[in-house]
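Blinded run. Sample ID left blank on purpose so nobody reads anything into the name before looking at the predicted structure. Input follows.
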Amino acid sequence: MKRSALAALSGLLSGYTALAVAELVASFVRPQAGPVTAVGGAAIDRTPAPVKDFAIRHFGSDDKLVLQLGIVATLGLLALLLGWFALRHRRTGAAGVLAFGVLGAAAALTRPDASGPIDALPSLVGAAAGAVVLYVLVGRLLRPATGPAGSGDGGRLDRRGFLLVAGATAVVATGAGALGRALGARRGEGAVASRAAVRLPAPASPAAPIPARAALRISGISPFTTPNADFYRVDTALVVPKVDADTWRLRLHGKGVSRPRTYSYQELLGRDLIERDVTLTCVSNEVGGPYVGTARWLGVRLADLLREAGVRPPSRGGPADQLVARSVDGMTLGSPVEDVMDGRDAMLAVGMNGEPLPFDHGFPVRMLVPGLYGYVSACKWIQDIELTTFDAYDPYWVRRSWARRAPIKTQARIDTPKPFARPPAGTTVMVGGVAWAQHRGIRRVEVRIDDGPWQDADLAEQDTVDTWRQWSFPWRTTPGGHTLTVRATDGAGQLQTDRRAPTIPDGASGWHSVFVTPG
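Blinded prediction complete.
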């Protein structure tokens, strides 16, 4: 193997060592301080909204994994190039590894949830280890093998010595990375134990039983209640926060708050809890998309906490018109105070479908406001509520070109048949799906076959105005290609618009359709 190839391998081992050592150090600092996570978070923050929306649309919940793999692949390529360069400029190559460590440290220190200068440590220590490895391995390549006197082997490459050092480096780095992952997993054990110990109290205001006819027995339609494991997840957290409920606190303060408060988890559990079925929708949901789901939530009515703190909505003379919720990972979401306090079941949720919130969905506490898209209402891992104004503060997504106010738009979706399905011709096929217009409800759903007339679909019984509604339509199939289109009318009598709009800035609109070919 040529020296240049071995030098490139040295660079790759240098990068691998740097990441492994950084992961080990991050296990003592905090997982979010690791260079891949910190750089990934910085990349998410600086990604233009259309690109971010593209990633969510095409990769879904795997968008973060794709980003992390992309970062590792890029670092691997740069490491190969640094190794090749170091064969000619050994010290400069090692300095290049240190430079990437400085970039990682800068990314960690500028994260919204940075805990201080110590967050720079994983990137810096990892880079230092990587620089030493590159310097040593390239030095082995530049050192000629020692042969017997007069043998003429003085300039021969000592491949065996190089491979021994490289192999030992790979083993040590792998061990460091494995130890780092193990220690990192142990850091979350307290949070896991605190969740396992939670016994959710019975609600003071339980949800009414879901009507038996709210769930149609038609194959292919989304279940009325979405299981926790299947509930969509869209957020910017590369590492899911593991928050210990025993040490968690929520601060309530800001403009118009005459009695600021700090709540513990147990204090919230000790209050009168409400239980409600609510459908949540992500603003990144395309027409016909999957980022919508219904769960039975248990929590504290948010308006009660605000009133106890002396907060009044703007319609009653309150000075604050925006409620800013902050997550433990630095995310900020802004909700209209008027909407939170207008009588709808806005809550700080502690339970989801009969169990404590899963970590992916915000344990120990998350916020939700029926009728608003998640990016302006559904703060997970919440730790701070500040009352302010829309003029005074722009939350995370607003600074990235999304709208300040975002009521959920009326939508209907065809779940069955699937696009390009080939049902038998001459038979009756049940077309079915769901429609939603949270806080307004669904009054009517219509289906059109090709360019024919709109026909009323059969509606399942409505649970509440805050949940989606299933629908069905019996269609007698005929041979050839056909386009099935659906539209809905909300509880206020407003017909869903046919105007096609992208998700940015305030949610997608348009009619959903599928093309099928009975035969």
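Unblinding after everyone has recorded impressions. The two ends are 60 Å apart (CA to CA).
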